[in-house]
């Protein structure tokens, strides 16, 4: 089911000395029913005009989905008065996606990788583990409420 809210992506030239970057931004409410539509919109705009392998398309969709889910459910605690911002900087060689919520943040180094048998039933850490495995670089802001993921196009 699609959400009743229509999401809108903005595309503009990004501040780039070579003039080759495009900026894609999206702001969505903390409503999990918006995740699928947001992922499709951002993915379409991030890959427009570029030849993208199925691997890149898959990775981008998964990491966007996980980051948005974490931001809405864990960061904003599904508080519909709070928003999630998505900012993607597109250059010929990579896609840099930043997802920021309005929550208090967390310490990403305190989240263990969910690989030990005793952690398999725990509900935390899987999304972050997937993100780290599927992108080329991951960074968090100091507060821990913003994740930046870099995915090389090749």
| Rg calc | 15 Å
* Estimated structural class: alpha+beta
Order of helices and strands: EEHHEEHEE
How much of the sequence lies in strands comes to 25-35%
Outline type: globular
**Strand line-up of the largest beta sheet:** 1-2-3-4-6-5
Indicate the CATH class. Alpha Beta
- The DSSP helix count reads 3
CATH architecture: 2-Layer Sandwich
Let me know the average pLDDT.
Answer: 89
Distance between the termini: 33 Å
Number of strands: 6
Structural account:
- With 154 residues, this protein is an alpha+beta fold.
- The protein has one domain: Histidine kinase-like ATPase, C-terminal domain (Heat Shock Protein 90, 2-Layer Sandwich), CATH 3.30.565.
- The protein has three helices and six strands, in the order E-E-H-H-E-E-H-E-E.
- A six-stranded antiparallel β-sheet has the order 1-2-3-4-6-5, with helices on one face.
- A hairpin with a 2-residue loop joins strand 3 and strand 4.
- Helix 1 runs antiparallel to helix 2 and helix 2 packs antiparallel against helix 3.
- The longest helix has 22 residues.
- The chain is globular, with a radius of gyration of 15 Å.
Please supply descriptive tags for the structure shown above.
about 150 residues; alpha+beta; Heat Shock Protein 90; six-stranded antiparallel beta sheet; about 30% helix
Set down the secondary structure blueprint.
Layout: E1 10-13, E2 22-29, H1 35-47, H2 54-75, E3 83-91, E4 94-100, H3 126-134, E5 137-140, E6 146-152
Antiparallel strand pairs: 1-2, 2-3, 3-4, 4-6, 5-6
Give a quick rundown of the structure.
This protein has 154 residues and is of the alpha+beta class. It is 29% helix and 25% strand.
């Amino acid at each position: 089911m699609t959400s009743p809210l229509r999401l809108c992506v903005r595309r503009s030239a990004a501040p780039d000395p070579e003039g080759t970057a495009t900026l894609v931004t999206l702001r969505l409410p903390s409503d999990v029913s918006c995740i699928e539509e947001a992922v499709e919109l951002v993915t379409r705009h991030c890959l427009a005009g570029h030849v993208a392998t199925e691997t890149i398309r898959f990775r981008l969709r998964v990491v966007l989905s996980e980051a948005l889910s974490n931001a809405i459910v864990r960061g904003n605690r599904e508080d519909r008065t709070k928003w999630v911002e998505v900012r993607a900087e597109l250059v010929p060689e990579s896609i840099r996606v930043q997802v920021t919520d309005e929550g208090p943040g967390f310490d990403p180094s305190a989240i263990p990788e969910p690989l030990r048998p005793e952690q398999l039933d725990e509900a935390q850490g899987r999304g972050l583990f997937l993100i780290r495995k599927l992108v080329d670089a991951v960074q968090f802001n100091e507060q821990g409420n913003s994740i930046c993921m870099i995915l090389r196009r090749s």
